[in-house]
Specification:
The protein contains 12 helices and 12 strands. By secondary structure, the protein is of the alpha/beta class. A 7-stranded mixed β-sheet has the order 2-1-3-4-6-5-10, sandwiched between helices. It has a 5-stranded mixed β-sheet with strand order 7-9-8-11-12, sandwiched between helices. The longest helix is centred in the last third of the chain and has 16 residues, at about 300-315. The radius of gyration is 19 Å and the shape is globular.
Amino acid sequence: MKNKNEKLGMRDVFFEKLYTIFQNDPNACFITADNGAPTLDKFATDFKDRYFTVGIAEQQMIGMAAGLALEGKKVYCYAIMPFITQRVFEQIRVDVCGHNLPVTMLGIGAGLAYDIMGITHHTLEDVSIMRTLPNLTIWSPSDSTAVDSIVKDSHDLQTPQYIRFDRMGVPEIYADNNFSIEGDLTEIVKGKDVAIVTTGIMANNALKTAEQLKRKGLDVGVIDVVKIKPLNTAKLLSILNNYKAVVTLEEGVLAGGLGSLVLETMSDSNNYKPTKRFGIDDSFVFENGGREHIWDLYEINEKNLSKKIHEWHTDTIC
């Protein structure tokens, strides 16, 4: 059990608030695929007729969720992230998104959160894959405060959703720095030279990078994208208009990811800015040594980013 002064992780903040929603919504149901959590125990106890576990059968879970949703239920499905996106992609596409059903996929372990578990448990492709699905909303909160801000909105939304949770130990961006989260995307730090557009745990790396670049004379802002799809394009473009250049940062593959989305958005609006993407470039990650070690190898930590962005800005913008 956690003491009252210990912060809950993303997943547990969501489940704590969802419990209250379940108390007031008799149509809310929960299905888990061989995954538990202390914060889920009271769901199993207090909502026995609305809490189901299917074991290691994620495809069955999505089919079951679709059936419940067709009968008027609001369904939440929970599993480790690669198993609730890639393993069940066809079922989500056809059964859930094809019928535009109120089923929310909750994935734990964004990006390299399961660092030592290898490529079976890494989730570097999920944004690229899932954003191709019509009707699907994608949430990618950066910390527990961001998670808390989306629970009610995600419950009110009666369409398919996918929510990306990191694991324990993610730094608090908003509560610890007195930043105010502003809906689907937030300009955490304002600047004028370079905007770093990011999501999830990389928001923390972006803030550290902005601080290092400030010492090198660059005025760098940070934009945290909490809702990846549908992206608030008008708000993003309005913010980017105040910058000379754009950098995107993600703990995922570059092909089709957040950086691609930002470039598509600028291209479709004929609103071009010099842009540089940082992430995992067409590679599986077989290296061990922990998450921060992998960040260093793939140059997505603040030390490498500040160097790379400064060089790029000097060569391209100046």
